[in-house]
Design a protein that fits this description.
Layout (H helix, E strand, L loop, with lengths): L1 H25 L15 H32 L6 H21 L15 H5 L2
Helix pairs in contact: 2-3
Length: about 120
């Protein structure tokens, strides 16, 4: 009876492991760019805009939270709310721009290297 239970557990573990591996292959992070950088490729430009947006959002979060923390510890800064709203608005404009400039599915995708020597390298 113990052997049957052990076999059942191991089959569940294998199923779970296979599911996790399938999800990992589908949703692998971080974003990777394979091949040479080609600024003329619309997908490459889109990934570049996404990276810039995430860096901008990270800087916004770090600096803005630090400013609010310092304001809470020391004297109030009357214009901090305006500063935060203005910067957040610029961040939202950048987000809308990234979404609006996303490449359409009908555009050709260049996945091969233009230099044959680079394709042979791992």
């Amino acid at each position: 009876m113990s052997a049957a239970l052990s076999h059942q557990r191991s089959s569940h573990v294998l199923e779970a492991s296979a599911t996790i591996n399938a999800l990992h292959r589908r949703c692998s992070m971080p974003i990777r760019w394979y091949g040479p950088a080609n600024p003329e490729d619309p997908i490459y430009r889109h990934f570049s805009r996404i990276v810039n947006l995430t860096l901008h959002a990270g800087v916004f979060a770090a600096i803005n939270s630090g400013l609010w923390f310092v304001q809470g510890m020391r004297h109030p800064w009357e214009h901090l709310a305006w500063f935060t709203e203005l910067w957040f608005t610029l961040l939202m404009v950048q987000l809308i721009t990234v979404i609006a400039q996303r490449p359409r599915r009908t555009e050709p995708v260049s996945t091969t290297s233009t230099n044959p020597q680079q394709r042979d390298q791992p």
